[in-house]
Give the backbone structure.
Amino acid sequence: MLTTAPHTPQQNGTSERRHRHIVETGLTLLHQAHLPVSYWTHAFQIAVYLINRMPTSILNNKSSFEIIFGRQPNYHKLRTFGCQCFSWLKPYNHNKLQPKSKPCIFIGYSSTQNAYKCMDIHSSQIYISKHVVFDETIFPYTASTSMSSQPHVGNPTIVSTIPIVPPSGQTPSMQSIETTAAPVVPPSAPPTQILVPPPAPS
């Protein structure tokens, strides 16, 4: 039995094409959800999850999941990667005063339970829960990216320190005030004078 020689991936074209399929699908999920590349592990994992459940003509329009387990996968469980979700967090709370849910990002499916993986937007903590409400029209990273890239529009403000003339009998003090910068208009040039010579005597 022959094996692939070192540094010659062209000898194993099947695995290379499968690897490219996973990478391209994962990068598409990241781009669609506007997630940074640091989430590539979650994107590639859910890419494999989706590919194994997609029917293919090679298997007579059956999926790999159906061939292995003898039953069709549950397509009602599929959700949009990177969308906003609200997970039931009561089992994770330490007291009754903490919120029972908070905005999270859907990043995949649990590989050992029939549950979803949700990541807290602020703390980046991952929760595994079966009871999740999804809002597949909102992508939190899309909103944050657009807000951070939007330039600030407004009048420029210059902070300067100028002396304030106090009432009589008090010591002058320096106070910091804000003044709005106004466009500098250059002074108009004085009109040009034309000297007319006197008429010659007759």
Observations:
- Residues 15-145 form one domain.
- Helices lie at 13-33, 40-51, 64-69, 140-149.
- The longest strand covers residues 157-164.
